[in-house]
Amino acid sequence: MGRLKGKVVVLTAAAQGIGRACALAFAREGANVIAADINLEKLKELEKEGIEVHYLDVTNTKEVEMFATKVDKIDVLFNCTGYTFHGTLLETSEKEWDFSFDLNVKSMYRMCKEFIPKMRKQACGGSIVNVASVVSSIIAAPNRCVYGATKAAVIGLTKALAVDFVKDGIRVNCICPGTVDTPSLRDRLNARPDPQKAYEEFVARQKMGRLGQADEIAHLVVYLASDESSYVTGQEFVIDGGMSL
């Protein structure tokens, strides 16, 4: 406990899943947490944990700019927003392609563009953690064409930011999860003709024979956010239950 004591953490997609688990983990470790999401109803549940919440559409540049003006100090930025489109290239419309890149990649550009200058002004720099995926430049998965392309881009963006701002004391890393049991995954499974079969197929991809849990991902994110990882930057951390083996 207290590994993030006194640090200000800003994160997106905090209403549920990995984002929610990380928001709670940050708070348990003593951070002052500022959580954002478009699902304000679910997000408000975090207020009882002492977490500050804000509605934020990360695809809206003006909203991101306004949100950033409300944050005077920042030590950690966790870019967690993401969207999974199911389909091959031939099944991916231009609209789906553009939306996937806007939400999965450009949202991180928007957030970093606003918060890196704040970190540069601080003597202590800061830590940025982006959510990529093992389905990216690491491995491919069926029907994940645009998703994999966006997550490969996140890895590339992470490394570019890391090398550009290392002299400012800003560390930038990304996590690459396998399949994690989250509400968004359950929604996608329930949309399939046979949800149980779809679930079993997802489990079969993980060589450990189970899905990951959001809290397990949060442990890694806390490490990257904390000073324990002070000599780590520009890296992608695979946490996938053996999916990529």
UniProtKB/TrEMBL annotation:
Keyword S-adenosyl-L-methionine: no
Listed EC numbers: 1.1.1.104, 1.1.1.30
One example GO MF annotation: 3-hydroxybutyrate dehydrogenase activity
Catalytic activity: (R)-3-hydroxybutanoate + NAD(+) = acetoacetate + NADH + H(+)
Oxidoreductase is among the record's keywords: yes
Top enzyme category: oxidoreductase
PROSITE patterns per UniProt: ADH_SHORT
Record pathway: Siderophore biosynthesis; Amino-acid metabolism
GO cellular component, one term: cytoplasm
InterPro entries the UniProt entry points to: NAD(P)-bd_dom_sf, Sc_DH/Rdtase_CS, SDR_DHRS6-like, SDR_fam
Name this protein carries in UniProt: Dehydrogenase/reductase SDR family member 6
Organism: Potamilus streckersoni
Lineage: Eukaryota, Metazoa, Spiralia, Lophotrochozoa, Mollusca
